[in-house]
Every structure is written in structure tokens, then in C-alpha cells.
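Review box. Two proteins, two foldings.
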Amino acid sequence: MFKTIKNALKTPDVRKKLLYTLLLIVIFRLGCYITVPGVDTFALSEYMESASNGMASLIDLISGGAFSRFSIFAMSISPYITASIVIQLLGMVIPSLERLAKEGGEEGRKKMNKYTKILTVFLALIEGLGIYLSYSSTGIFTGTGFVTGFTVVISLMAGTALLMWLGDEITNKGIGNGISIIIFVGIIAGLPGAVTSIFNLIMPIISTNPIVREFSTTGLLISIGIIIGAIILVAAVVFVQQAERRVPVQYSKRVVGRKMVGAQNTHIPLKLVMAGVMPIIFASSFLTFPAMIIQMFIPDIASQTGFWATIYNFSIASSTSNVGLGYTIANALVYLLLIVGFTFFYTYATFNPAEVSNNIKKNGGFIPGIRAGKPTTDYLSSIISKLTWFGGLYLAIIAVIPMLVRFIPSVDLAFGGTSILIVVGVALETIQQLESQLVMRHYKGFLE
């Protein structure tokens, strides 16, 4: 990895892309500290210190602390993620959208992206309005009139729109997937807090003076367990993300132009998790969306009981242990099903066995022992189904287990399985894209 980065920095155009990506990341982090107009920062600080809100904690984790500061990026990129889910699900049930996605080519992709952005602005309006209504009674705003509300909502919408633009710029002119990079940076921003939490376990404060601390053997053992668990989790994620099933393909001799091309033996690399980290991101956003809507209409829902409070507690159970073990187990089961479902959805959206089979047949190729045409399609479908089941369940289990570990006394995981999956997955995808950029420039040795 370090050799890849070193070679990238030596290549002028790749170095330019890297620096441009870093510049946009810096802009994102600066925006996380620009408070929305109309917010009393002192009142906000006091309220956030005393409040315990699972929904706020989840958004704050993804946004890199922007939500707790009520910055212009407080909503992060979540409206865009939700809009992407809706548009892609609509593409499965609306024939015109399905044709646009599959047969529209580059122009179709641009139109789908346009529809996603329009829906994002609409969802950002709803979410921004909900956030303002939810916190209007807390005293963190300098006013309560229409002008204050309008300013807050417009600022939040503008922040989300700016993040969309930053994501597109990173994707088109930088390195990596822009939206994933923004989420990655937001999560990584909490790393110093995670280090502080581990230090507080080992050297807990024993008086009102934070300087007076006492060494804790129990805290040390718990910290070592957390660190070892995180290392094992990262290693497992890297192993599965890099693992692939290679399907052999043979091509017979054929005439290309005026030349005879000899027989070739190659393979189709099929990864265990072809969908990458997107199932995790989408499942998390889909599961927490009800809590965001409920809190919009019932600002003090966290302190209430009843049907809507039950739905709210169930929705935020993945981000907090304050709602109880029962809610967390129910949430974990639904979370598992959503991750597996989105894994299948994204896998078959990116890999079409029938299309691959036809391409192999057109080029005079075949899989040894498998007849060309439908048998090849069925064979590839069978392999993809097995790999996706394994990959989806693997992702789900890694995301769910840390949710249950939180209930062990004295254990406070700053980074859950979902966060580690996203961080490691995005890092791997970005390095692979960087390597592909260098491959096109004839570099050798860094993939050894």
C-alpha cells in the first residue's frame, strides 16, 4: 500500500488527483465547524452535553461531529443515500427507469443521477425541517420565528447540496468514490475520541480533577480485548474483501482482422462481496430513517412511551445501548436481513450472469465442462448466489456482533462493526482504484 502511494506521488497526474481529493476533504472538515446561522453555540454546547439521543449519536458519527456542532454539514450525506436507495428500488418496479438504468448507457446514468439529486434536495428539505422542529424547543436557536427557521433549514439544505458536489468532484476528478470518501472521513474523525475512551478505561478519573487518575487492571484487560478484537475484525474484512473465486474461461483460435489469434486461458474474478460497503451504508440509512421521520413530528419522542416510541427505540437501537437489549436484538435481526438483501440487490445490479455468458459466447469462449449459452448462465448464477449468501451473512454478522458487545459492562465501543466495515472497505476500494490508475501508466512491482 505504501509503495503504491509512493509511486502515485511520483506520477504528476495521479499526484494532482490525490492533492485535489485532499483539498476537498479539507473543505469538508472545515465545513463541519461552520455553525448554522441562528444557533446559540453556548446553549448548543450545554444541551449536547446533557442530552442522550441515539439518533443524534448516529448522525454525528457519520458526519464527523458536524451534527453535535449543528454545522452546515449536520445532515451529512444521508439524504443523498436515502434518495439513492429510493431511486434504485423504483428502478426495479418502474419499467422506464429500469430501461434507463440498463440500456441508457452514459446518458442514462446521468439522468438517473439527476433524478437522485432532485430527490435528495426534497429529502434534505424534509429532514432539515424535521431537525429544526425537533430542536426548536430546546433553546439552542437565537429566535423562534419564520426567518430563523427558514435560515436554519436553507443552511442545512445548502450544506447537503455542497456535500453532493464535493462527492461528485472526488469521483470525477479525484481518487475513489466521493460519497464513500466523505463517509469514511466523517467516521475517521472520531478516531481521537476512540483513543481517549481507551485511555480513560486504563486510567480512569477518580476525582473531579481530570488530572487525578488511577491505573485500572480491569480497564487494561478490556482495552486489550477491544484492540485485539478490532485487529481481528479488520483482518477478516480485508481477507473477505480481497478474496475471489476465479472461474476459468478458455478461448479457441479465431480470426481478428487479418490475424489469427491463438487460444487463450483466462478467468473471471468473482469477489465474495461484489457490492462492497454499500449494503452496510444503505441498510443503516434505511433502518434509521423511521426515527428521523418520527422525531420530526414528535420532538420529545425519546422521553415518551407507546407505539411510536417503540418504533423510534427500535430504529435507533443500532447506535445506542440506552434502549435495552430487547430492542437491540430485534434491530440486529432486521439489520442482518437488510444487509443480506442489499448485498443481493447490488451484486445482481453490477453483475449480470446472462450478459457475461453472452459476451463469452460471442468471443468464442467457454467454461471448461460447461456448455455455452443458458448452461453457462445457470452455472454463473449458481456461483454468484453462493458467494453472495456467504458475503452477505459475513457482512451482517460483523456489523451485528459489536451491537451486542456494547451491553458488556464498562465496554463503550466508539467504533462499531459497521464503522470498521465502511472504513476498511472504502480504504481498500480507494487503494485498488489508485493501483488501477498506476497500472495504466505502466508501473510494475507495487502489486507484488
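Next protein.
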Amino acid sequence: MAVMTLEELKKGMSDKIFGQIVDIFIRQSDILARLQFDDCVSASGGGSTMKYKYMRKVLPATAQFRKLNKSYTASTATKKEFEASLAIMGGEVQLDRVLNKVAGKFDNLAYQIEEHIKAVVSLFHYTLINGDAAATSATDSPEFEGLDSMVAGTSTEFGTAKAIDLSDISKLKANADEFYEALNLLIRTTNADALLLNTDMIAKIQTVARILGYKTESETAFGRKITSIDGVQFMDLQNHYTVSGEGSSAAAVSNAVVKKGIARKISGAETNTTGLTDIYAVKFDVNDGFHGISLSGGSVIDKYLPDFNNPGVMKNAEVEMIAATVLKNTEHAGVLRNIKILISRNCYT
């Protein structure tokens, strides 16, 4: 098993353009900067599938006292076999060779590549949380399974029966202690390295921390600000954009990756509670936690750039990522659900 991060991937690379592209991925995503990849997936089924089989710990072993001349009751730490498929994510742009010739100081190709990298990161973030659970079965789903379904029904899924209301400052002050205790339980239970959440939720946590007297920001040696609590980093997974209709001038749909504004029925509530979001916690560990997978000997990220000196009016450029995420221990990832952060009139789904 070879394990690497994207930062390690670019070391020793002679291709400077490739190194710059990897740098953009790292700058765009805190999680991609930290995520370890097990690059051992090879093609199977005649080269048509790219599967990763692994064992996920779902129940621990138990211990007990015994009396003399009495035996222990046997118990077994339970692991279950899971299968994940690598997903192919990417984007393509077409450029006229004349536009490239007259571009001057503005490098349109570099701009388009960077914008497509942002789109790939956005798609990866969205799928990491909301990915289709059916992607683990024998379906033709191109996605990989997200954390939302991985942790559903486990001992590290918290807050399913009751919403914690932080939607305005008075409710935030009233519920700050309850929320902070629930968040701390999520972190401690999963031994988390990071919290995955949206921008609005980060702002709410920082307000709660300020009210309770906790510090959430620190600086790296390079002066970059890191938002965290007790060393657990907040990773903003930002927004995922989709455009409906060719030629649309703006994103038609904009939903935060860890969705805000969702409506959900909680326990025995007669009506849906709106304005909710969830907070996910993960421990990065390729042996016993949450990590990425990639092709054996592959680079996770690939780029295909045109040669403008060759014949052909239109030139295609592509950026591609081949990866997925897996969870090897349900105790090392979890979710705190149903945090109300938006008042009803501002909700959207």
C-alpha cells in the first residue's frame, strides 16, 4: 500500500505546469491539502471497473468480569466488507487558436484551467458529503459514496431527535452551552482532525466560541489564518454551483456542500423544521479512518493541454481527477445534525 498526499505527489516532478496545477488544487481545498490517498486501485473486469475493496470496523470487541470456574461470553470485533469505485471528475474547455495568439498578457488558457480546477474541487467537495450511496453497489452510478450515508445510523450520528437553534443572536446566546457540548462530544467521540462544514456554520461557531471565551483562530508560520478549536481544523467546503441551460450567465442553483436551509422533520414534529445544516467530523487515517483512494501508480490529477502549433482551429484542454473517499472505521467519522442557522424567511433548499 502506497500512501501519499497531493503535496508529496508534486515533489520531484519535472513538469512545472503540472506542479502549478496541483498547487491550485491544494490552495482551493483544505481537505485535499490534508487527505491521504491510497494509490493501489487497478482496473478489473477487463479494464471496465476501478474497485477498491476494504474492511470497515462497525462494532468493537467487549470485555467483562468473570467468576472463578466461569468462562467469558465470547465477543467479536465486527468488520464488514465494503467496495468503493473510483470516480472520474473533470472539465473541458475549447479555445480558438487565434484567441490564444492575440491574448497578450492575459493567459486565457491558464485562466480557464484554473476555473475548471475550482469546478472539479467543488464537485469533489459536494460528493464527499452527499455522494450517492448506490455507488457502492453494482449500479452504473459515476459517483462515490458520501459521508452523509456512511455515518447514518452509526453511534457517531448525533442530533437526529432535536434541533439546536442558533438562527439569531438571542437564540445563539441561549443555546451556546448546549451546542458547544454537542460539538465537543462529536469531536471527542471521533477523535477528529477536522470539521467539514459551510461558511455560515463556521461563523456561528466562532460567535459561540467568543461568547464562551474560546479562541478559534491561529496563524501558521507563513501567516495564514487557521480556524480551529483545540487543534481540530474547520474546513469550509464552500458552495457547489450548477448551471441550468446552455449560455446561462450565472449559476442557476447554489447550495452549500453541507447544505444550509434544508427542511427536515425531526422526531415527532408535526411540521418540517427549516434552516438546518449538519457538521461532519473526520479523522484522517489511511489504516483506521477517513482517506482517499486513487489509481495504482497514478497521479490523482491529470492535465491535457493543447499544442497550438499543430493543425486544428479549435483546441481542447482538460483537467481531470480520478479519486474517491472511504471510511475504514465508523468511530472515526461522525455528524452533528440539525443545527438551525437560518431564520425561516431566509431558507432555501
